[in-house]
UniProtKB/TrEMBL annotation:
<feature type="transmembrane region" description="Helical">
    <location>
        <begin position="12"/>
        <end position="29"/>
    </location>
</feature>
<dbReference type="InterPro" id="IPR052710">
    <property type="entry name" value="CAAX_protease"/>
</dbReference>
<dbReference type="GO" id="GO:0004175">
    <property type="term" value="F:endopeptidase activity"/>
</dbReference>
<dbReference type="Pfam" id="PF02517">
    <property type="entry name" value="Rce1-like"/>
</dbReference>
<feature type="transmembrane region" description="Helical">
    <location>
        <begin position="188"/>
        <end position="208"/>
    </location>
</feature>
<feature type="transmembrane region" description="Helical">
    <location>
        <begin position="119"/>
        <end position="143"/>
    </location>
</feature>
<feature type="transmembrane region" description="Helical">
    <location>
        <begin position="78"/>
        <end position="99"/>
    </location>
</feature>
<protein>
    <recommendedName>
        <fullName>CAAX prenyl protease 2/Lysostaphin resistance protein A-like domain-containing protein</fullName>
    </recommendedName>
</protein>
<keyword id="KW-0472">Membrane</keyword>
<dbReference type="GO" id="GO:0080120">
    <property type="term" value="P:CAAX-box protein maturation"/>
</dbReference>
<keyword id="KW-1133">Transmembrane helix</keyword>
<feature type="transmembrane region" description="Helical">
    <location>
        <begin position="35"/>
        <end position="57"/>
    </location>
</feature>
<dbReference type="InterPro" id="IPR003675">
    <property type="entry name" value="Rce1/LyrA-like_dom"/>
</dbReference>
<feature type="transmembrane region" description="Helical">
    <location>
        <begin position="164"/>
        <end position="182"/>
    </location>
</feature>
<keyword id="KW-0812">Transmembrane</keyword>
<feature type="transmembrane region" description="Helical">
    <location>
        <begin position="215"/>
        <end position="232"/>
    </location>
</feature>
<feature type="domain" description="CAAX prenyl protease 2/Lysostaphin resistance protein A-like">
    <location>
        <begin position="132"/>
        <end position="224"/>
    </location>
</feature>
Length: 238
């Protein structure tokens, strides 16, 4: 037997334990925040997960900059990142609207009727709505989720599955399942839809050589447009 095999197995187990601790932290904080009806409970839980994952990363001398959240420098890089961002937004809306949504509806899968109720608190309150967009949608979801899921989780899973085509595909699927399951409040349709979005974001992340900045912006734009549509549609999901 290769002497490296036991070491690799031990390494993989440590990573899986680390990931488990991070997401148990997220689930625990989310449950506690939901119990007290805290607005932005998911975002609070995500950032608690980021804190825990940062502690693990420091032990291995890994910093967040290595995972891709660098602001572009120079006009050329900015233009490239803007094009990637716009392309990602168009890709997500196209795939979700033309492929995923019709397939889900053909199986009778739609979001539960009460999903939009969680946003009722800012309906008709523009300042509250803008505050929610900035703090929860952009800081919590766009920045927080991309750091945690694409930056941290995907890279740690690839450490387990292997930094090759097959390993990356397996890591993408696993991370998409986890991302989707954390949106279970949206019902099965929401789990599948958000899982598909995670696959798209994750795939783009690897295609553009693990750069997070354009994906963070694309995530924020997509979520913002969706919520703006909800806001001006009086809380009705179309």
């Amino acid at each position: 037997m290769n002497d490296m095999e036991p070491q690799k197995k031990s390494f993989n187990i440590k990573i899986l334990v680390e990931i488990t601790i991070v997401f148990l932290t997220i689930l625990s904080i989310k449950h506690l925040a939901d119990y007290f009806d805290v607005i932005g409970a998911g975002s609070i839980a995500i950032w608690c997960g980021i804190i825990v994952s940062t502690i693990f990363m420091k032990q291995k001398k890994i910093n967040w900059k290595e995972l891709g959240p660098k602001i572009p420098k120079g006009t050329k890089n900015w233009m490239i990142n803007i094009l990637i961002t716009l392309g990602t937004v168009i890709l997500v809306f196209s795939i979700m609207g033309l492929i995923v949504k019709p397939i889900l509806e053909s199986f009778g899968l739609t979001n539960p009727a009460g999903v939009a109720d969680r946003f009722a608190f800012f309906m008709g309150k523009p300042l509250v709505f803008i505050g929610y967009l900035i703090t929860v949608v952009w800081f919590g979801a766009a920045l927080g989720e991309e750091l945690l899921f694409r930056g941290y989780l995907l890279n740690r899973l690839v450490d387990c599955t292997g930094n090759n085509t097959l390993g990356i595909i397996i890591a993408l699927i696993i991370h998409a399942v986890i991302f989707g399951m954390l949106h279970i409040y949206q019902g099965l349709a929401g789990v599948i839809a958000t899982g598909c979005i995670a696959l798209i974001f994750g795939s783009v992340y690897f295609i553009i050589k693990r750069k997070l900045f354009p994906i963070i912006i694309a995530h924020g734009i997509i979520n913002s447009l969706s919520l703006i549509g909800l806001y001006f549609n009086n809380g009705v999901i179309s």
